[in-house]
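@channel sequence for tomorrow's demo:
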Amino acid sequence: MRTVGAVVSPGPRLRPARPGRVVVIGFAVATIVGTLLLMLPISRPGPGGASFIEAFFTATSAICVTGLIIVDTPVAWTVFGQVVILVLIQIGGLGVMTFASIVGIAVVRRLSLRSRLTAAAETKSTGVLDVNKIVGSVLKISLLIEGAVAVVLFLWFAFALNYPLGKALWFAVFHAVSSFNNAGFALYSDSMMGFVTDPVVSLTLSASIILGGLGFPVLVQLRREWRRPLRWTMNTRIVVAATISLLVLGTIYITAIEWSNPATLGPLDWPGKILAGFFQSVQTRTAGFNSIDIGSMDDASQFGMIALMFIGGGSAGTAGGIKVTTFAVLLFILVAEIRGDGVVNVFGKRLSRAVHRQAIALVLLSVGVVVAATIAIMIMSGLALGPVLFEAVSAFGTVGMSVGITAGLPVGAQLILIALMFLGRLGPITFASALALRDREILYQLPKERPIIG
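structure tokens (generated this afternoon):
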């Protein structure tokens, strides 16, 4: 019997996943796949495979382009395992959703709306319609820079250092990808300490790291309008100015403090000291290589490097940290407050008050995460504040530099570092996107009142 006039409920509708959430899921899936591949016997020399924590830590470090390790990369992994690490670094540097978009464009020549939204959130595109162009530019820039770096390193390894051609090619490609993506994974057990006074290797890797740390939006604009700086956006101007300033200040700071340290720069001549100081300053852009022993550096040097690692590099790129734009915004707010200005002006433009709130919220949350993780690791390991804080900031800033305590930490502490790497790579992206999407018009205002500050 048919009931007339009955209303059939359409049932609950599935809500599309938010872009930030999709990015997190994408990175999580890539990490799981990488972990499983690294646990295969073919990934590890000798009988058996890697343990879960070794594979999980390494996969997370690679996909989050960090570089922290608990096993020696050239010793603990076969060529297959190293290839897996390299692929994870490349995917993590481009961004999982950006990489998926590249594959989608290559296969079906177009992207769905959801794919456009997630790629836009990851690359900081200005709109959904330009995602195809942005993703294409990201791929071209990445391959161009990595290819150029690989060619220089290959020629140097093969003809100056007399590596066999196969080894020279593999080492060149691996370190080109690792450096541009600010990953810090190396195929040398002592990282780059063997090249501390080698200007070709040190400067080539440094150039690759700096370019990767600028962020793709900046690289795309510089590629198109590098001769017309007056047409650069506020973001590009801030990133370029802050990057140059921090590199110069970091070089002077590290070189001056370590100049006479017999365990670091002391034995080098003055050109070697300047080169090594510059190289380590570049690594604080979240790269993670080291040409001197980080654990033997002066406490003041390590503290300065902690600050630089926390700041990080440019947004929507391969660098980590709170990003130089966030730091610059806070600096401009501070200057405006000291001067008593009613608004914050940056390079002839007024800064939106929404950006003020987002920058402050992001920094406070980041500080809270690092402090909580540092306390937890100190309790678990019984180690002092200095080395634990360095390791925690290195993980959160996806830097990868280490004072040498990571491998000896308890498993619980290593899991905390894994969480920090994941949060450091994805937290700023998803949190900033969430804040931007939560803007809403308020139809009323409450009465003003000022608490006592200071």
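heads up for whoever presents: The beta strands are 345-346, 349-350.
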